[in-house]
Structures are given as C-alpha cells and as structure tokens.
Amino acid sequence: MRVHTKDIDCLLTPRVRALPAAKAVTERLFGEQWTYRVSEDWPSPGGADTPDHKLPAVRLNPPGSTDWFVELLTVPESPADRKRQFSRLETTAGHFVLPSYGFLSIPEYHPIPTDFAIFIARPEMMALAHLLEHPVIGTQTMSTKIGGQILKRSNKDLGRVLAIARLGDGPSVENWPVLWKEVLQNNFGDEWRSLALKVGAGMRQLLTPANEPDFQEVRHSCEYGLLVSQPPTLDQLRATAERLFQDAIEPFEKLAR
Residue 29 in 3-state DSSP? Predict the structure, then answer.
C-alpha cells in the first residue's frame, strides 16, 4: 500500500536544546536551497519587529518541489504543561516560532532508530497523542486545504488515528493498550488513569449520527492522506473505528478502571 502525506513533522528534543537545534537546522536547509512554504496566512518569514503571534512556524519545501514540506516542532517543557506554546526562533532567514503542543511528549517515547540519526515516532504513540489532543470535536480548522477542502483540525487528526489503525494489523493494534499504559504512567504518573478514560471521548463523538458531516471530513482526510492508494468507503472506515474500540480503546479503558 502506498501512503501519502503533505508534511513531515520534525520533533526536536530535548526542549533545552530545541531552539539552538532549530536555528541550525533551518539555516542549513535554507543553505541547501530549501524554500519557505508560502501560505495565505503566512506569506513570508517575520522580522525583528513582527509580534510573536504573527510569526510563522518553520515550514520548508525541498529543492524543486512544493508537494510536501517539513515542519519543526518541539516537546513541552514538562508533561504537565499542556498549553500550546510558541517560542520565538531568530535565524538569518528571518524570524519564526517553534511550536509545542500538549501531548507531544508521547511521540518521543521509545521512538524507532534509523541509520540517519533520526528517530521515528511509533504509530501507536502518534495515535494516542491525537486521541488525547481531541476529547471533543473542535471548531478550529486547518490553515491549508486537504484535497481542495478546509477540514477541522480534530477531524484531520482523528482521521490520522483511523488511518494508522487501518494500516496496522490486528495483533499490533491489540498490543496498544499495554503500550499506552506504559507511556502514560511514565510521562504523567498517577494522572494516567484519568487520561486513559478520556482516550475514546472524541472518537465516540465522531461516530454519533449527529456528527456524520465530521465523519465525512475524516474520510476525506484519509482519502487525500495516508490512505490515498486505497481510499476507504465510509462503511469501511466505520468498521475500522469499531475494531479500534474493540481491540484498543475499550481494553485500555478497562485497564484504567
């Protein structure tokens, strides 16, 4: 199966070294002819006079292509820090922000090493982070269109969870509850039980008849994202969601009770 993504999120850790590393990576990529990804909201990098809230993140296209881009992120200062934070990043190419989101400490847990000194987040950890990030279907939309359509961020991220589950085989998804418990206990201590009981909330809301338009957005995100080579029907995607509850979410909730 061929998968497709428009961006590669690069998570810089540890936090204490993230800003110097982001500056070095950004300037190196610009020096290698990578280009700033222009968007309607962020037409160019900022300058010294640009307020922090008007600065773009580092999003760069590779030389000769605008089909995809890399984006730089960092982990929260501590697992207890769940608020979105944007640290100012000053480079020779302009001023940016380095974003950090609530549950980005989860994907950095036991990542998969490669021969390139780059670590890859484990699929089950990405799924867990997305589930915890969206306990309800929110109203915030993506800044760029996916397949010609503006989607809610929660629908895009929950669609990513279903795509990951669909790409995984049954036995691997059945192992998720134990791994989820391990990372939540490691990162959040005694709070792990209360977090675990929220894992299925957003997905349950998504599957209610009242949220059918949201589920259609989820399918759209899969069709133009990770599942582009074999786009699922609505019924197939619902079946994936049902298996996800059966194999992972409900067993995880039982572990927490």
Answer: helix
For 77-100, write each residue's pLDDT tens digit.
887 788 889 999 999 999 999 999
- Whether 117 and 143 have beta carbons less than 8 Å apart is answered as no
Q: What's the token pair of residue 60?
A: 């760069």
0.70 exceeded by pTM: yes
Domain positions in the chain are 7-100, 112-256
Task: For tokens 């786009």, name the residue.
Answer: 231
DSSP state of 45: -
How far, in Å, CA of 199 to CA of 161, rounded? 12
- CA distance linking residue 229 with residue 108, whole number of Å: 28
Give Cβ neighbours of residue 14 (< 8 Å, ≥ 6 apart).
75
Torsion over CA: 75, 108, 28, 16 (sign): positive
Pairing of strands 35-36, 94-100: unpaired
Could you give the CA distance from residue 129 to residue 73 in angstroms, rounded to a whole number? 14
